[in-house]
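Reproducibility note. Readers wishing to regenerate the assembly model reported in the main text can use the exact inputs given here. Chain order matters: entities are listed in the order in which they were concatenated for prediction.
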Amino acid sequence: MRIRAFDDLVLRVLMLLNSPDAEGQMTTQAIAEGVATPYNHVSKAITGLRRLGLIESQRGRRGGVRLTDEGRRATVGAVLRALDDREDVPDCRSPKGDCVLLPSCGLRSSLRFAREAFYQELDGVLIRGVGQGPAAGPATLTLAPAAQRPAS
Amino acid sequence: MRIRAFDDLVLRVLMLLNSPDAEGQMTTQAIAEGVATPYNHVSKAITGLRRLGLIESQRGRRGGVRLTDEGRRATVGAVLRALDDREDVPDCRSPKGDCVLLPSCGLRSSLRFAREAFYQELDGVLIRGVGQGPAAGPATLTLAPAAQRPAS
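Running the prediction on these inputs yields the following structure tokens for the assembly.
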């Protein structure tokens, strides 16, 4: 099982905005540098976060992106659940057609139970807290300059 | 979160070989038709399953693929664990470089706990059993002819 690259990016953008380094507001460019990810990808993540009501943005010279109250209280589980728009864990139904095993398949319900167990484990984990993991010093998010990470 | 398409295919090939329709042995071609997936993809899944000791194959005119004893006893959890070759759930470390949040990130360990909860939920689920889901009739796997499903 995997976390989608987009979901991973959304979580990292939220972690960054929840870090002391964010100082309330950041530009998309600064976020892109912070998470060392191309601007366009980060821009899509920001659109997604705005749609979920977790951030708000201000236009103009002093513009930027900042967390809403909901964004400050967000949990990893709630964010991943909100991004998961599919009924089934595997591709049982797709535009190409339904899986041939579908009529008598018990795998889907087993995987749904397992997915729920995965999310439940993360429902209590605050985004604000995960930047302060076991290896953290007093400055919780140590962001290396983007230059130290080759562009993806 | 997602199940990778390859893992999904491996599970479906195992479900098919565990079904009464398999009658002990099947050719790769028959499996590909059964799961309505291109031959090349199925061939890779079979290589993976052989490597895991879950199936064995016999060459020649009467050749084909059949389950080993281990393949008959396999659980969904054990198969997905065996296919999961990464330490981290997201892409923390990649050939392109480490994630910049890595030094003080608590997300990885939270996601590892959640992944473990996901697998534990599936450790007791026999592949042999999931073809006999709640919607199953007496013939547990009702495989529609591949022609009914547009080729992917």
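We highlight two features of this model. Chain A touches chain B through 67 residues (CB under 8 Å). The two ends of chain A are 22 Å apart (CA to CA).
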